[in-house]
Write a structure and sequence with these properties.
This protein has 536 residues and is an alpha/beta fold. It has two domains: 379 residues, TIM Barrel (Alpha-Beta Barrel), CATH 3.20.20.80; 67 residues, Immunoglobulin-like. It is built from 15 helices and 21 strands. An eight-stranded parallel beta sheet has the order 11-10-9-5-2-1-13-12. α8 links the parallel β10 and β11. The longest helix is centred in the middle third of the chain and has 17 residues. The chain is globular and about 80 Å long. The two termini are 20 Å apart. 51% of the residues are buried. The structure holds alpha-D-glucopyranose. Alpha-D-glucopyranose binds next to loops.
Length: 536
């Protein structure tokens, strides 16, 4: 890390607590499990943890259906456990950020229960989006919007009104025009900041503001494509076209919310930060979330969506850096998360995933690592009976959902459930995962874990890595990326399935994503699908 402000170039590790480590044998991960995992994370060399939701929740959407944002769900532990975890992370030099979910609450939240029990037009209902339906007897939803998880975005209540939910019917959308909502979220921010968290990952940061609720989408068929969380093989421009028609995302009003949040965080010492989950296109729209006085980072989903293609990646890197320099924000590099296929599966194998990781670790700005990515875990093709994601359920199985990347991770090869915990894991682990267990990979100098440890260590010790310094491109053969980071580092990425030879005088190997390349008499022969860091 070379930045003065910790988050600008931090390596942040995402813990999805349900699948990280189960300390009490109930088959689900918990906060004490995260505490047990801290030595591993400190040794891995990350700077911070982003902890996905552990708040009170009926768990219809993996905890992103929050019924009390200021309390811990008993499945994960207690508030004391949360305080202990924050303290324990800090004492190991790790920062800790938590999720905040402003687009919706759970239908089990006391506000929603109150709203359901209150009449039309009541103050309790105005915290959400309740409307009468269309049709003769109000039997049709107020508009034609569909949910991100498929099916209508409206559910009818017993008294005939409808409420809006962009996600599952158990996740009613909040009405940010109601001052109760902003006041309550400010309370939640302060609650966790007072407890010592270092920042927030903002869920569906492009949701929240809805200023045209009764307007139909012009083409609901296209709405489905715009909302898909999996990877359509389309360009950023096509994505932007799909999103431009969506009436409920990326509205101007969301920025007002985040300017207020920024002011709250700025009252606290210690560079508390925010990172936005904003699925918005083109990437210049994402940069608007990190303008001065708003949020700090935005996940770079445009880059994440790309295939293993040198020209496309280079263009995206250049565009990202230029757009973010304009707003003085650092870039982020993300390869996967709890909503997407794992990078090994998405990109076409472990070898490419390692090369891609080393590329992103060498770019200016911060990186995010999703738990198990460092082990090279693939997505898991689960039997349908095991799947629990509402996207699978609501789509009638046509969308396989996101369970494939949420399978509990392997710790110790020889233990039951690979040391994740003694209880039956909430999603089944494949029989083939002993090879990926941390204890196995820690002993293997050629493992993915060893590579991540080495590259993260170099990010701390090498003066050219991390930071936000300049990246200078060097002309390279087709399919190869070549650039310098000063002082003294050169990065070469071969995305082809064949070796490539090129002149690189006066350099030596610093780190390689795979073995097999040669450096002799000023000529580098870089193996297929490999990234190499060279020292000048
Ligand atoms: C975000 C979360 C995802 C969740 C959705 C609704 O996209 O990352 O897991 O289902 O928001 O809260």
């Amino acid at each position: 890390m070379n930045s003065q402000v910790w988050w600008r170039d931090a390596a942040i590790y995402q813990v999805y607590p349900r699948s990280f480590r189960d300390s009490n044998g109930d088959g689900e991960g918990d906060l004490q499990g995260v505490i047990e995992g801290l030595p591993y994370l400190a040794d891995l060399g990350v700077d911070a943890i982003w902890l996905s939701p552990f708040y009170k929740s009926p768990n219809k959407d993996g905890g992103y259906d929050v019924s009390d944002p200021r309390d811990v769900d008993p499945r994960f532990g207690t508030l004391d456990d949360a305080a202990e975890l924050i303290g324990a992370a800090h004492s190991r030099g790790l920062k800790l950020i938590v999720d905040i979910v402003p687009n919706h609450f759970s239908s089990e939240h006391e506000w929603f229960k109150e709203a359901i029990g209150s009449p039309r037009g009541s103050a309790a209902r105005s915290r959400f989006h309740f409307y009468d339906g269309r049709g003769e007897n109000g039997e049709l939803p107020p508009n034609n919007w569909i949910s991100v998880f498929r099916g209508p975005a409206w559910t009818r209540t017993p008294d005939g009104q409808w409420y809006l939910h962009l996600f599952d019917s158990s996740q009613p959308d909040l009405n940010w025009k109601n001052p109760d909502v902003s006041a309550d979220f400010e309370k939640t921010l302060r609650f966790w900041l007072d407890l010592g968290v270092d920042g927030f990952r903002i869920d569906v940061a492009h949701g929240g503001a809805k200023d045209n609720i009764l307007i139909d989408h012009p083409n609901p068929e296209r709405l489905i494509d715009a909302l898909r969380l999996d990877f359509l093989d389309i360009s950023e421009t096509e994505r932007a076209g799909l999103l431009a028609d969506v009436p409920f995302f990326d509205r101007e009003g969301v920025h007002e919310i985040y300017r207020k949040w920024r002011a709250v965080l700025d009252e606290y010492s210690g560079d508390r930060m925010t990172v936005a989950e904003a699925f918005v296109y083109p990437s210049s729209r994402a940069a608007r979330y990190v303008r001065p006085g708003e949020l700090n980072q935005v996940f770079n989903f445009n880059f994440m969506m790309l295939g293993w293609d040198a020209a496309a990646m280079r263009a995206s890197i250049e565009k990202t850096l230029a757009e973010l320099i304009d707003v003085q924000a650092p870039a982020t590099w993300v390869l996967n998360n709890h909503d997407t296929p794992r990078v090994v599966t998405r990109i076409g194998g472990a070898r490419k995933a390692r090369a891609l990781a080393m590329l992103t670790h060498s770019l200016p700005g911060g990186i995010y690592i999703y738990q198990g990515e460092e082990l090279g875990l693939p997505s898991v093709d689960l039997p349908d009976e095991a799947r629990q994601d509402p996207a699978f359920i609501r789509s009638g199985g046509s969308d396989k959902g996101r369970d494939e990347c949420r399978v509990p991770i392997p710790w110790i090869a020889s233990e039951p459930n690979y040391g994740y915990g003694t209880g039956n894991p909430w999603l089944p682990q494949p029989d083939t995962w002993a090879q990926f267990a941390m204890d196995v990979e820690a002993q293997d100098p050629t493992s993915s874990l060893t590579l991540y440890k080495e590259s993260l260590k170099l990010r701390h010790t090498h003066p050219a890595l991390g930071g936000e310094g300049v990246l200078t491109w060097i002309d390279a053969p087709h399919g190869v990326m070549h650039f310098t980071r000063e002082p003294g580092l050169e990065v070469v990425v071969n995305t082809l399935d064949t070796d490539v030879s090129m002149e690189v005088k006066g350099k030596s190997f610093l780190l390689q994503s795979a073995s097999g390349s040669l450096l002799q008499d000023g000529v580098l022969t870089i193996s297929a699908n490999t990234t190499i860091w060279l020292q000048r």
